[in-house]
Amino acid sequence: MGLQRPAADHSEKADRLMIKAAVVGLGWWGKTIVRQLASSRTIKLVRTVDVDPNAAEWARERKLAVSTCYADALTDPTVDAVILCTPHAQHCDQVLQAVAAGKHIFCEKPLTLTQRDAVTCVEACQRAGLVLGIGHERRFEPPILELRRLFDSGELGTPLQIEANFSQDKFLSLPADNWRLSAENAPAGPMTATGIHLIDLAVSILGPPRRAVAHVGQLGSQLSNGDTLGALVGFANGSNALISAMLATPFVGRFALYCNRGWVEVVDKAHPEASEGWTLTKCLRGSKAERREYPPAAAVLANLDAFGDAVAGRMPYPVTPAELVGTIAALEAIVTSARNGGTVESVPA
Description:
By secondary structure, this protein is an alpha/beta fold. 32% of the residues lie in helices and 25% in strands. The chain folds into 2 domains: 12-137, NAD(P)-binding Rossmann-like Domain (Rossmann fold, 3-Layer(aba) Sandwich); 138-345, Dihydrodipicolinate Reductase, domain 2 (2-Layer Sandwich), CATH 3.30.360.10. It is built from 10 helices and 15 strands. The protein starts with 11 loop residues before the first helix and ends with a strand. 49% of the residues are buried.
């Protein structure tokens, strides 16, 4: 598949064509990003940052430059971009600090926790002429790219509704004080962990969100912030997205787009951290459903390389500013509805 990369060429010439980046935050996903960058064709890792001594030791064992201060990455003249793998509530301030330092930013999802902060970050990057990437690697999965191709070609017709589920039980082993389980950094239980990916895909297909109603419950675990989310998001074009996300059941992933001339469903075979491939099913009116199997592919790396290409000026980054803001507008509406009840209006600026 097109997203499967050969080993990166680390010759001197290749290094000159690569942007230089610092990974900030060496937790579970930060370490995943570091491993992915070893094969990047566009990004060379030159520095890491983490306040945890254990994480610093992990970096030193891999002969990576490491420090405990974010400012070290921002003042390093060799760093072109920062890759933020930090607690969600810190993202807005860290993005703005990077903008002030003239660094491009790749931020793990969610970009921010409020629409207002998302607008602030997006507009600051636009004014400074800096690329703002986002950790929504699901867009880069080969079957999702095929789903988008079918939709964009008009073959499926008018979009009616999306149904999607992204659930896992990886967080059950985390200590109760882990930031991924806190109300401050992870409101609405599974939403910032998995549900946000589904919202991003829905926004990229259906356009601006307009309202949301959601419920979060603690039903099958000790996760005090909730382990079960159900949300209905309405869009400006009249279509809906039905979002399901759980943190107390083994992994399951499904994304289905229903249109008036056909539908497409993508089913994951394993968690994206260690892809085992996908099954895509397509059904057009008047025809039988057709299935196609997809092998594993490095979607996380493809997203990082797209960011590197954008920083280098080779091609635009494929997530638009309007989509960045729209996804967070829907997130905020879902969080508010889950907390207070009722339908919450969500109109991106």
